[in-house]
Amino acid sequence: MEERLFATEKHGGRALYRLHAVTVFLGICLLLCYRATHVPAAGSGGRAAWLGMLAAELWFGFYWVITQSVRWCPIRRRTFHDRLAARFGERLPCVDIFVCTADPRSEPPSLVVATVLSVMAYNYPPAKLNVYLSDDGGSILTFYALWEASAFAKHWLPFCRRYGVEPRSPAAYFAQSDEKPRHDPPHALQEWTSVKNLYDEMTERIDSAARTGNVPEETRAKHKGFSEWDTGITSKDHHPIVQILIDGKDKAVADNEGNVLPTLVYVAREKRPQYHHNFKAGAMNALIRVSSVISNSPIILNVDCDMYSNNSDTIRDALCFFLDEETGHRIAFVQYPQNYNNLTKNNIYGNSLNVINQVELSGLDAWGGPLYIGTGCFHRRETLCGRRFTEDYKEDWDRGTKEQQQHRHRVDGETEAKAKSLATCAYEHDDDTRWGDEVGLKYGCSVEDVITGLAIHCRGWESVYSNPARAAFVGVAPTTLAQTILQHKRWSEGNFGIFVSRYCPFVFGRRGKTRLPHQMGYSIYGLWAPNSLPTLYYAVVPSLCLLKGTPLFPELTSPWIAPFVYVAVAKNVYSAWEALWCGDTLRGWWNGQRMWLVRRTTSYLYGFVDTVRDSLGLSKMGFVVSSKVSDEDEAKRYEQEMMEFGTASPEYVIVAAVALLNLVCLAGMAAALDVFFVQVALCGVLVLLNVPVYEAMFVRKDRGRMPFPITLASVGFVTLALIVPFF
Ligand SMILES: O=c1ccn([C@@H]2O[C@H](COP(=O)(O)OP(=O)(O)O[C@H]3O[C@H](CO)[C@@H](O)[C@H](O)[C@H]3O)[C@@H](O)[C@H]2O)c(=O)[nH]1
Ligand SMILES: [Mn+2]
Question: Where does Mn(2+) bind (predicted)?
């Protein structure tokens, strides 16, 4: 028996957690019992409101049970790089790396190439690395940036190797200026300075091209690839472009130390207005095909253009799973968490995925594997192309090496031409290959990643979650409220869309023989969107009833109050503890609670409504790329952790109205505290949570304050809610 290449460990403290969960569960049962047995008589004022509370609490109880699946027995993986090295040496498989970008304005080319350089510089035999950049913007600016990067790589890669640079994104590395190699020999500092200058100059050229929107004529003469843009093409209407900028097999192309370089390919698949391009899923599928004629590696790593590699050993880390003799053959993909480098200390928009990263994905890992979350994920090419799991499946780890040898004998132009033909619109359309359905990433869902991963799990494969101490990938989180709301709308809509489609985890998953807790885990995200309705109800109705003197909870002196208080306190204390354990601050947790409310009442509500409209055929799914840049003024407020309401957006009306309504109800309540204890507490917490919203409405003077029309509209809605006699 050979030693395993990775180990699996259980998180500690589970007995305690389960005890907590059981008591909360009992509390939920008791509280529902009270609700069901104390319904006001027909005709009395609060009956409808009461039944609504019952429905909301039934939902919350059910959803809470769903979330237990990932907390029951989370696990952690540990890999043994030394064993991998001892067993395989440099006899490692080829790896294709896909980087996706879509728009040079919201994703600046200089950011994109920093990511590309970081993945070219992996601590891995360069002859076995092939990097593909998919540019859905079809932009000459991005192509130009990549061409610059292909030249800079000749300095950057040897520099990284020689000094063990970390992280290997030049942007991230040079940003940490205290990293100057002080203790190294004097020439190290000299080299550091010269590489930094080269990098700064390159970035300046790329950025200035991006500013002016075109590439200087004399530069365009330097590479044949620029001629693709001679005929004035637009991002939505252009021919397929495939340019091999570095051919790793060409011995004449080497870095400044004479080593081979990774293959580097620019791809902009064909776009025509009459063909739907299927967003990122379409881009990924084009890359799968294009790469199959150039390198055809058995392993594919995919990253978003803002997710640079922060750990140069990650490929070896992932291979510890795939190459493990005992269970490696079951693993379809290895997912790494999404970490961000632009979060502020207290996480004003609740964008750190800490709890998802540390708890939920680890929890899913115990039941069959984490979701595929679109970036930082290593796939087997075969599973991505639709293969079912069979116990006797044997990967051909030499594939790719063979293809590359064949390809060496072919003329470069021929490969490019073949690749182009695979990146046309007509290819998927004419050829009945079932791309986007059985083959490749799935189409028609705004979380193409999650649905694709689910299909892979249902074909019998497992996945693995790896979260090494040094983060494998680091990217950019949205820095404004509007961007955050937008991103969560896309996510909640996509996941709910899956839940109500034929891919519903409980139906499709069962057929695929995934386990019930695994299906529940998927449903945590699938049911984000419908959470909006009970949450909105809970944030509005009890407060309104407080104002109007309708009690909805047991009195302070009633023993029935105990389960309500216990569930509320225990659940929130646990959630705060969990957040702290995952690395958030207490204030960050508190901000997270506010964002939880905001997301549920805006993004998730919109996601819910749009999914319903979608399934009635009234709207079409979209994918709005989130911006990775913000203007200076906005960026400053983000640093100061002030919420950004500057650009009016209809969602803010909901945020402002809910906040205002609770303030009015708390101020105007005319009720006895003992009868209304829970309602006062609930309303009070909502008001406290919303303090930053009141500031934005009534106090702040900066450009990020709540726009006046929004405040006005929310006042209108609140007045309406107060005068219409609902209850
Ligand atoms: O038509 C498109 C649209 C987007 N993208 C790329 O998709 C990636 C993700 O887009 P982004 O706007 O950054 O969305 P996020 O919300 O940050 O993305 C998360 O959620 C997506 C699904 O909604 C996943 O695809 C991503 O991997 C995951 O990081 C970016 O690299 C884009 O360039 C394309 O290539 N083509
Ligand atoms: Mn992103």
Answer: 280, 304
- Catalytic, 136? Answer yes
Domain boundary assignment for the chain: 8-68+542-588+608-723, 83-477
First-to-last C-alpha distance (Å) of the chain: 71
CA distances from 639 to 75, 171, 197, 313, 508 (A): 35, 20, 28, 32, 44
Give 47's pLDDT tier (boundaries 50, 70, 90).
Answer: very high
List the structure tokens of 219: 């530069």
pTM above 0.90, yes or no: yes
Residue 167: is the preceding peptide bond cis (ω within 30°)? yes
Six-digit token string for 716: 């209108």
d(C-alpha 304, C-alpha 318), whole Å: 18
Q: Which atom of ligand 1 is nearest to the CA of 628?
A: 13
Cα 627 to ligand 2 centre (Å): 8
- Return the CA Rg of the chain: 27
131: tokens are 């990097």
Rounded Cα gap, residues 676 and 556, in angstroms: 8
Q: CA distances (Å), 372 to each of 88, 321, 329, 441, 445, in order?
A: 28, 16, 18, 11, 14
CA 104-638-643 angle, 5° bins: 115
State mean pLDDT over 227-242.
94
Q: Is the pLDDT of residue 122 over 60?
A: yes
What CATH class is the domain 83-477? alpha beta
Lowest mean pLDDT, pick from 265-279, 612-626, 692-706: 612-626
Q: How many residues does the chain have?
A: 727
- Give the residue from 554, 510, 581, 582 showing the smallest Cα distance to 678: 554
Residue 380 backbone phi and psi in degrees, to 5: -80, 130
Please name the helix (run of DSSP H) or strand (run of DSSP E) that holds residue 194, with its range, or none: helix 186-212
Q: What is the pLDDT of residue 673?
A: 84
> What distance in angstroms lies between residue 99's CA and the mean position of ligand 2's atoms?
12
Would you say the C-alpha torsion 357, 360, 366, 368 has a positive or negative sign? negative
ipTM of the complex: 0.98
Which of 97, 304, 442 should be mutated for ligand 1, with most atoms under 8 A from CB? 304
Q: Is 449 considered catalytic here?
A: yes
Alpha carbons 529 and 521: distance in angstroms, whole number: 15
